[in-house]
Fold this sequence. Notes:
This protein is an alpha+beta fold. Helices cover 28% and strands 29% of the residues. The strands form 3 sheets. It has a 7-stranded mixed β-sheet with strand order 1-2-3-5-6-8-7, with helices on one face. It is globular, with a radius of gyration of 18 Å.
Amino acid sequence: MPPIEIIDITENNILDYGICSYKNSKTPGFNERVSWITDNFNNGLKIKAVITQEKGMQGFIEYIPGEFCWRPVDAKNYTFIHCLFVGYKKQFKDKGYASMLIDECIRDAKRQKKDGVAVVTRESSFMVGSKIFSNKGFVQCDNTQPDFELMVLKFKRNAALPKFKGDWGKKLDEFKEGLTIIRADQCPYTVKNVNEIKETAQKYFGIEPKIIELKSHKEAQNTPCAFGTFCIIYKGEVISYHPISNTRFTNIMNSKLN
């Protein structure tokens, strides 16, 4: 197992280690992500990273007090995990580092006297599946369409369980017309993708998409999709619950229009 170190990413070292495998400030999404992180440090955001001597950052966990989470979840007095990823290089996958990061989060939540730790999982791109959390004692406490699970590790027996805020149908009512893309700077990859999708929608489908940039956790907690920080809606129907490529968007739209 290659030697690794788990460190806290702070305002003082974030540019040294990069974010989400991005290290160049000229990369679309890099500066937006850095600004989002530094803004949310004020709300208790924490990022712990797996650092290797030879390959630099090879993974991270991002979590925040549940009151300030960027998913449509009610998780008051819980620590909420936004992201978990390890293995930008294949040699660092399946080494137990992700488990170590979860342990760090759990210890931190206990030090802060939280009711527990919560996370949204999904067996899909851009999200972690439930198995690694169930192995840590997390259990499902809620679920929602199409296949999102809200999982929790409770520290206090009588604590209220987290739950999805729901009302998805009601929230979708305002998006019955045209194409809407909802995104936030919490994920840097969506900047390039959304720009490409917007151009394709205009050029090939003759549609001017409405793009909603989420600016606060309150806005993210009231989105019509459990992913929270990304969603594509066409005529009142969610056609993507997570960030997708321009190619994938084109295929989806062709299937809707043909």
